[in-house]
Design goal:
Region (Disordered): 285-319
Shape: elongated
Protein name: WD repeat-containing protein 81
Oligomer: single chain
Radius of gyration: 35 Å
Distance between the termini: 13 Å
Number of helices: 14
Keywords: Cytoplasm, Cytoplasmic vesicle, Endosome, Lysosome, Membrane, Mitochondrion, Repeat, Transit peptide, WD repeat
Helix content: 25-40%
InterPro entries: WD40/YVTN_repeat-like_dom_sf (IPR015943), WD40_repeat_dom_sf (IPR036322), WD40_rpt (IPR001680), WDR81 (IPR052651)
CATH topology of the largest domain: Methylamine Dehydrogenase, Chain H
WD repeats: 407-438
CATH superfamily of the largest domain: YVTN repeat-like/Quinoprotein amine dehydrogenase
Structural class: alpha+beta
Length: 704
């Protein structure tokens, strides 16, 4: 969920704005069935713009992420982004709109409408004040502003207006009349107020007097409510084009139906808007294509018409709310009545009929988010909320000890864990002679236990190495003999036995892609290379060279595959060129047994030893660049994250050391509730920033 939110959802949200940029994206699409002008009363604007078609796939992907991880995605990630999109600019003076911000407003309103459909009733009521103050009021402040012009002019403002009406009407439908009066009266009243202001400006007939005013001074106009507001005369034309009689009608009809009598309390100027709507009806009626179809839907054209639509004549066979015919107690819906008479009371028919219009998914008022197995709750939710707030530039590994998942199943100590390159699965090898493949998808609230997808049982001894050959996607595991097997079927593809059973293999490493070789060291300090595509050995190199440095304990291959470094039980390290087989350098690196080596980009080697130290080397430089000591126990397992090493000791302490300047070291003790037993192995998931910790009791834990 964290990766999806940070890398996928964030970019999709940014993409949404681009869907509405530019005047072409803001044209209304031509629908095949031209609906009569009166369908404007429907709450779901039936006039999509081109941008809505372009943004369709983006929205469905965003909603898919919400379906997967549940409601928190809507309230904690999408809503804050919406309020960021619509936030007004600086507090001082009117904020200028650019075309990106204008598109952002359209995107924000569209996304809010999608979100509200999926919110449960309790959540909607909880965040209603936030929606009102962080979304609706800022949008309305741009929309009804007398001083801010839209870069694309009246067209963009009209679309934003239609979308906002839709959005507010949807919220009103969801929460009911009483709640509208409590929570939404301010946005609704602001919306209606603009008509009065324009009406008064029209009566006052603003004179443009360029000489009389200063350079940047806008004329102040006193309105009938006694307030002075600055007005930009150049904008009046744009405003007149947007807030026409038709817009008054489009806004008045849904709200008079939705609010009923409350409209008188909430909206002081509702009579004026009602009159404008009436004027529009009069202007439209004679010119309409099919006047007969209008009769049942036009009550009296004053503001005094019955808000519930009771004035509709019911005797013409059409019931005014449904556009359908009652036959006995059955409702017959005539096929052709739908595009002809959508009715003024579109919204109410939606409530009565259980769905709006054709009842298609796009028109539902409320939809359940399906319960997904990956829904966020408990620790996962807390961790996810923290992670989406962290800036993406932070290159440090932070260990919070949040327990996310447990993987029980091994009956012996876990000797090694290795995530696959995709980080969707990981492998673990144990003393119980099995290798298990586990899925890493999030389930439950942090306490859930996950079963393995596959158990490989062909080994005869305790397993000390497991890894993935990236190029052919095979798994390599070693218990003294190497097994190469298929992680999808669990079938053994090849086993490599040591040539002499008395000299078993002591260390194994896999070559990075595109190589398909495995390198292994046996107890007589011979290094062998095997290519899994062909039988037999590729190369065989002797590492001892006259000295007796002991057993090879650890092998590491550089990320380029050009060199291999071997660490011996005497603390000696040997660097070998894989292409020529020449020993580039051998040096006494530690005083004790070498426990683990990793090779990093930029020819850097990191080694840990039983002399309690973790050392960072450059391949061909004599002196180490960093040297860390752990106080109580040697660092027997570590992994790398960027330029940091994450270390683990037997006393269950997790440390983070920097490989760059300046040196820094921090340690955390694992608490007993998060991790039981003794830490035996550790692996880090770099993209997800999680740790996999294996224990001597056979349980693996995923912690963040």
């Amino acid at each position: 969920p964290t990766v999806a939110s940070r890398h996928v959802a964030r970019n999709l949200l940014r993409l949404l704005t681009s869907c509405y940029v530019g005047p072409t994206r803001q044209q209304f699409t031509v629908s095949s069935g031209e609906s009569p002008p009166l369908s404007a009363g429907n709450i779901y604007q039936k006039r999509p713009v081109l941008g809505d078609i372009v943004s369709g796939p983006v929205l469905s992907c965003l909603l898919h992420i919400a379906h997967l991880y549940g409601e928190p995605v809507l309230t904690y990630q999408y809503l804050p982004y919406i309020s960021y999109l619509v936030a007004p600019g600086s507090a001082s003076g009117p904020s200028r709109l650019n075309s990106r911000k204008e598109a952002g407003l359209l995107a924000a309103v569209t996304l809010t409408q999608k979100i509200i459909v999926y919110l449960s009733d309790t959540t909607l009521m909880d965040i209603l004040p936030r929606i009102s103050h962080e979304v609706l009021l800022p949008v309305l402040s741009f929309l009804t502003s007398l001083v801010t012009g839209f870069p694309s002019g009246a067209q963009a403002r009209t679309i934003l207006c239609v979308k906002t009406i839709s959005l507010i009407a949807l919220i009103c439908l969801r929460i009911g009349q009483e709640m509208v009066q409590q929570h939404l009266s301010e946005p609704v009243a602001t919306f209606f107020q603009i008509f009065s202001q324009l009406h008064e400006l029209r009566q006052q007939d603003l004179k443009l007097d360029p000489a009389g005013r200063g350079e940047d001074q806008l004329p102040q106009v006193v309105f009938s409510d006694g307030q002075q507001r600055p007005v930009d005369p150049a904008l009046l034309d744009e405003l007149q084009k947007v807030f026409t009689l038709e817009m008054a009608y489009t806004i008045y009809v849904p709200f008079s139906c939705l609010l009923g009598d409350i409209i008188r309390k909430i909206i002081p100027n509702h009579e004026l808007v009602g009159e404008l709507a009436g004027l529009y009806l009069e202007s439209v009626s004679p010119s309409s294509r099919n006047p007969a179809s209008m009769e049942p839907t036009v009550p009296s054209t004053g503001p005094e018409w019955d808000p519930q639509g009771g004035g509709c004549p019911q005797d013409d066979g059409h019931s005014g709310t449904f556009g359908s015919v009652l036959v006995g107690n059955r409702i017959q819906i005539p096929n052709d009545s739908r595009p002809e008479t959508p009715g003024l009371l579109g919204p109410i028919s939606g409530v009565g009929g259980g769905g709006l219009g054709s009842g298609s998914e796009d028109n539902a008022l409320k939809q359940e988010l399906p319960r997904s197995a990956h829904g966020l709750s408990g620790n996962w939710l807390a961790y996810w909320q923290y992670e989406i707030g962290v800036s993406q530039q932070d290159a440090h590994f932070h260990f919070h000890q949040i327990r996310l998942q447990s993987f029980p199943g091994h009956s012996g100590a876990v000797k090694c864990v290795a995530p696959l390159s995709s980080e969707d699965f990981f492998l673990s090898g144990s003393k119980d002679r099995t290798v298990r493949l586990w899925p890493l998808y999030n389930y439950g609230d942090g306490t859930s236990e996950t079963a393995p997808r596959l158990v490989y049982t062909q080994h005869r001894k305790s397993i000390f190495f497991v890894g993935q050959l990236e190029a052919p996607q095979h798994v390599v595991s070693c218990d003294g003999a190497v097994h190469v097997w298929d992680p999808f079927t669990g079938k053994t593809l090849r086993t490599v036995e040591p040539p002499d059973s008395r000299v078993p293999l002591t260390a194994v490493a896999v070559m990075p892609a595109p190589h398909t070789s495995i390198t292994m060291a046996s107890s007589d300090s011979t290094l062998r290379f095997v290519d899994c595509r062909k039988p037999g050995l590729q190369h065989e190199f002797r590492l001892g060279g006259g000295l007796n440095p002991g057993l090879v304990r650890a092998l590491a291959v550089s990320p380029s595959g050009r060199s291999v470094v071997a660490g011996f039980s005497s603390g000696f390290m040997v660097l070998l060129d894989t292409r020529t087989g020449l020993v580039l350098r051998g040096w006494p690196a530690h005083e004790g047994d070498i426990l683990q080596i990793k090779a990093v980009e930029g020819s850097v080697l990191v080694s840990s030893s039983s002399d309690h130290s973790l050392t960072v080397w450059k391949e061909l430089e004599q002196k180490p660049t960093h040297h860390y000591k752990s106080a109580s126990d040697p660092i027997h397992t570590f992994d790398l994250y960027g330029s940091e090493a994450v270390t683990g000791t037997v006393s269950n302490k997790i440390g983070v050391c920097s490989l760059l300047e300046p040196p820094s070291q921090a340690t955390t003790k694992l608490s007993s509730e998060n991790f039981r037993g003794t830490l035996t192995s550790l692996a880090l998931l770099p993209t997800k920033r999680h740790l996999l910790l294996g224990s001597d009791n056979g349980v693996i834990r995923l912690l963040a």
